[in-house]
Specification:
This is Competence CoiA family protein. A hairpin with a 5-residue loop joins strand 2 (about 10-15) and strand 3. The chain is an alpha+beta fold. It has helices spanning about 60-85, 100-105, 120-125, 165-170, 185-190, 265-280, and strands at about 10, 10-15, 20, 30, 40-45, 50-55, 90-95, 110-120, 130, 145, 155-160, 175-180, 195, 200-205, 210-215, 225-235, 240-245, 260, 295-300, 300-305, 310-315. The protein has 3 domains: about 1-60, no CATH class; about 80-215, no CATH class; about 230-320, no CATH class. The strands form 6 sheets. It has a 5-stranded mixed β-sheet, covered by helices on one side. It has a 4-stranded antiparallel β-sheet with strand order 1-6-5-4, with no helix packed on it. The longest helix has 23 residues, at about 60-85. It is built from 6 helices and 21 strands. Helix 1 runs parallel beside helix 5 (about 185-190). Helices cover about 20% and strands about 30% of the residues.
Length: about 325
């Protein structure tokens, strides 16, 4: 009496121990289950979906997926090493810009920070891959261990079906790639050799690309929307303020002499305006209350005058008998 088939799978190990997809299977070959090592039959009918079939008792789906995933990654990595092709890992790095535009913010720590892709070819770092190899340095045994022949670099590859990477392995400080595998589609992903931190199926531990510093901002600026005051002086001595975001400031006509964040305190604004006026009109031929020895505070076009004991418009200096340029 024929036993009823119990579970259907898409992957099996051929007689050479290589992971084989059902689409590449042949009736003349023998196959075993990666999970339980029991024989599998390749069902290659024309009408029903092709699959590998267990007979009698078979392994649990968890065991099958875990074993298949390990074999898939290992197989793909060995192929890349033998053909000198890349295994791509996309991580993210912090890129900071310290360009001239950011200097207008007036802070030594001001910078534009953003996250950009950092791509690595794993085979350039690790030219050896071993299945379930015990690490002599840490005593731990990853699902797959990547290393270089000199033993200077190591990377653990872990397959998570139901059990995530242990805290002990994470605490080892060895770089770890943990792949979440829930279906045979995830095994197919491992066979691509293209892995990205943006894929929710990949977790990375102990591998953080070093931050990068550039001297100019490319693309979106994370501080580009900071409101800036850009000041100019008319021929008649009137101060003109234009308010605009940092990323729209013209660096050909603007510098720290006439441009600063609009959020500055009035006292600092007054000091900066005095410096600007002395630079823009060094002869001081155009009276301005900001430059008067009697002025105390600046408040949106008005100054507190000691002599008059009240707020006056900064242009009142033009007809003030007590105007005296501060030394």
């Amino acid at each position: 009496m024929m036993t009823t088939p119990t579970i259907q799978y898409a992957y099996a190990l051929d007689c050479k121990g290589s992971l084989t997809h059902i689409s590449d299977a042949q009736r003349s070959n023998s196959y075993t289950c990666p999970g339980c090592k029991c024989p599998l039959t390749a069902v290659l009918g024309e009408f029903n979906a092709k699959h590998f079939r267990h007979f009698e008792e078979c392994c649990a789906l968890e065991t099958y997926l875990h074993k298949c995933a390990k074999e898939a990654f290992y197989l793909r990595y060995q192929q890349a090493l033998s053909t000198e092709t890349a295994i791509s890992l996309e991580l993210e790095r912090e890129v900071s810009c310290y360009g001239a535009r950011l200097g207008l913010l007036g802070s030594a720590t001001a910078r534009c920070s953003k996250t950009k892709s950092a791509r690595y070819n794993l085979t350039q770092f690790f030219n050896c891959a071993e299945l379930e190899k015990r690490d002599d340095v840490t005593g731990l045994q990853p699902d797959v261990m990547l290393c270089d022949l000199q033993g200077n670099r190591r990377c653990y590859v872990e397959i998570c079906v139901t059990h995530p990477c242990s805290e002990e392995k994470i605490a080892s400080c060895v770089p770890i790639l943990e792949f979440k595998v829930e279906s045979e589609a995830d095994i197919q992903m491992l066979l691509t050799g293209q892995y990205s931190i943006k894929d929710e199926r990949l977790n990375v531990f102990n591998w953080q690309p070093p931050p990068q510093t550039v001297d100019h901002c490319v693309g979106y600026c994370s501080v580009g929307n900071v409101e800036m005051s850009v000041w100019s002086l008319s021929d008649s001595g009137r101060l003109n303020e234009r308010v605009m975001p940092l990323d729209q400031v013209d660096l050909l006509t603007s510098s720290t002499l006439n441009t600063w964040p609009r959020s500055l305190e009035p006292v600092e604004v007054a000091d900066r305006l005095k410096t600007f006026l002395r630079h823009a009109e060094p002869s001081s031929r155009l009276p301005n209350c900001l430059l008067c020895a009697h002025s105390m505070q600046w408040d949106s076009g008005f100054v507190q005058c000691r002599s008059k004991g009240k707020q006056v418009a900064y242009t009142e200096a033009r007809q003030c008998a007590k105007y005296q340029v501060a030394v």
